[in-house]
Structures are given as C-alpha cells and as structure tokens.
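Onboarding guide, step 5: your first structure request.
Type a short instruction followed by the sequence, for example:

Predict the 3D structure of this protein.
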Amino acid sequence: MTSAPEAPEDMLESPREGGEMTLLDHLFELRSRVTWSAAAVVVGMIPFFYIPLGIAAIEFLIVPARNQNPDFVVQAITPMENIFTYFRVMLLGGVAIGMPMLVYQVLRFITPALTSQEKRWVIPVVLGTSTSFFLGLVFGYYVVLPAAYAFLFNFGTEFAEVTPTISSYMD
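The system replies with structure tokens like these:
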C-alpha cells in the first residue's frame, strides 16, 4: 500500500541527522553549504577592502622576488592590470582566511553518509586540513618561492632581462 504524498512544506524540511533524503533535499542542503562557504570567503575578503592592507599584502607577496634581486620591479602593461591584481589578491586572501569554513562545510555535507565511527573524525580532519593548508602556504612562501625565483630570474639573463608584469607575477 502506498502512503499519501508529502505536503509541500514537508518537502522543504531536510533531515539534518542521517536518514534518507530526496534529490531536492540534497540540492537544498548543497545550496545551504555553498552559501555558507561563499559567506566565509566574503568575510575573509573584508580586511583586504582596506586599501593599505591590500597593498601591503601585494608588497608582502613581492618580497621573495626582491630578496633574490634587490632591483626587482614589476610592471603594469594595461591600465586595469593593477586593479585586477588587487582584486585577485583580495579574493585569494578571502579563500585563504575562509578555508577552515570551506573544509568544514564540505565535511558537513558528506557527514550524513558517514558511519558514527567515521563521524568522530570530522573535527580532527577539519583542524588537520586547515593546519596543513596554512603550513603549505608558509612553506611555499619561505621555501619554494625563493628557490623558484633564484632559478627563474637568473635563467637566460644573457639574452633577455626578466621584468614580469604584476599579473603574471601573481599568477
């Protein structure tokens, strides 16, 4: 025997703790998680709206190149290149600051499909992933960038001087 169809208001309520979910419930849950993730990125971008802080972040990113070549300068070829670079740094700073929330939201989305044994690992995985992410940023900045710039800025200098644009440098 079939049961009566669910009322529309029942369909909007998605179970949060396990159980079965319809495709629509999954999509609503995904929309909620993506919204929280986007909000985390926007909140992470807020400090960079203060222009001196955004400029300081760009200067901070240029330091490894200047350590390899004290005369290092970047150039802007197009009129909008500086503003595009500023907004790119702002967005990536927002992603970096919001990364713990992004990881948390991904894990919260998949948690209902996990067993209780696996669910115990959600918080340690969020903390471990976030820590690894930030350690990777530090490692890249202090170890990888100086070594890469030492090679790239000296390779082929016999026939061409390296003067990158600000956007190609930030890429």
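Each response can be followed by summary notes, for example: The first helix runs from residue 8 to 12.
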